[in-house]
Amino acid sequence: MMRLPILVATAMLLSLTALAQPRTPPGRAAAQAQVARCDAIAAQAGQAHLHEVRESFAAFLPAARDVLRAHSVEARITDGGRVARVELHLHAIRDMELPTDVPRMHYRDELDGARILQDPRSRIRALWEIDEVTVAASSRAYDVRYADLTAPDPYPWLEGEPLPVLKDYEVLAIYTDRYTGFAGLALAPRHPRGAAHRIYAIAGTHTLDHPDLRGWGSGLTLGRGQFISNAALHMAADAAAYARDMQGGGEVFITGQSQGGLTAQGLAYMVQAMLDEGGGRHHLVHMVSWGAIGAKEVMERMIAHWRAGEARRFGAGLERHWAISDPHQPRAAEAWAQVTRRWARIPEGAEGAHLDETAARMRAVGFFFDVDLFSRLGTFFGTTFAFPTALVLPDACDEIQAEFIMGRRSGAFGMQLEAHFLRGYHRAVGRGALAVARPADPPKWPVLTGMIPALEAIGEVWMETVYFRTVASSSANWTRCRAAHAWRTLRNAHCREDWWPGCGQSADPAEPNWCLATEAWPGSVLREIR
What we know:
Layout: H1 4-13, H2 28-45, E1 50-58, H3 64-70, E2 75-78, E3 85-94, E4 106-107, H4 113-117, H5 127-141, E5 144-146, E6 156-158, E7 169-176, E8 183-189, E9 197-202, H6 213-220, H7 224-227, H8 230-244, E10 251-257, H9 259-278, E11 285-290, H10 296-307, H11 316-325, H12 329-343, H13 351-360, E12 363-369, E13 383-387, H14 401-406, H15 411-418, H16 422-429, E14 438-441, H17 446-450, H18 452-469, H19 475-483, E15 486-489, E16 515-519
Parallel strand pairs: 9-10, 10-11, 11-12, 12-13
Antiparallel strand pairs: 1-3, 2-3, 4-14, 5-6, 7-8, 8-9, 13-14, 15-16
Helix pairs in contact: 5-16, 6-18, 8-9, 8-12, 9-12
């Protein structure tokens, strides 16, 4: 319990939960060269800080041989008798301090993990291969950049180069939202082999690299602010259209890490709800989350907000401004209308059951390490699978993310943070983690779940404050306001001309004056989200 204050503070900010992760070595040859170099360093320094790790697992997945063979992991697999086993051997592993007071995991041995991970409803023969790609896709989503947040048309772009595993994928679209900081992209295989599919990857919270305060505010809403944003609804509509196309479409994978994983849960629900509302046949929807923070309570509150007439809780003035000035609003409004038509038929008090039924029509899986602190927050929308701690341990000269941040040894708590960062998942997946993942429910922190309403309220104020001081006060937004029939500002409730007192943009950058469009020109068709 001594760590609870630390956990609460970290969860409130969510600033350490989803750092943009350093990339893994580019290709097997480079990785082998890196290992050789580190072995030489270890030999010079002595072997006291290195050791070998052996982990043995019962009832491994049928795909274990293929997974371990793909990564050239030293393993011994036996299937004699009635119990099958796999034994992993990891060499030259840094002797790191691991937590010893983590609450015991509840393993779900009654579940058929193999059937969940290799879902028989899917036409893809080796789903583990796509699941592994989603780690790299989640990392690539962190590379989405705005040219300038306040520019007239800040077309997003991707910084840097993708990880080698994504070389066979092309970027189809980039999605960004001015209000919540949502950032994501759609990927498709260049030369599909087997069943067609697309990956929709969502970034988590930006902190050290390209910090974005909007994402911090959305993090306090546990991703709700982002997965109901215009950009997310646009992505969901695209994904649903692709899954619904039985001739030219295919299966959809929605993925993300940390806050991106939270957002992926909500967005995948939106996609499935739209498919259910439309009826007819469609391809399978997959939701693959890395970090396994649960969004179910937030999703239940989302439905309750709508029932209470609060729509998205973004504020009526903001919703009308976007309806008048955002060209993407009609598509988002139609997606929202489809989802809320579904909500209107949910019996009062049956929201949780509705979410469970919707998850069952998808393949919704979340992966996490058994020492990850943040998996203790919220109920996951689907089935969670635990990785053993050993697979997150760094090799001889691999610096963990907490050490990079702190500039010193970080102890057991640093390893718990590493078990949440993307670097830890890259490391684990490269060691064949999907071969030994087990269905499990992490123990929860009820006190944090009880704080969700208060955190949401703080996050909503946070996002609104950032928006009014930046985007809403920018010259680009003033151009949109002047193009409307009427608008309001910080200093004037009704404007038709910008030379009226208080109706023009402030000349002093230290004293921004925002504007919101309030009336469209007669004859305009508005699609407000209600």
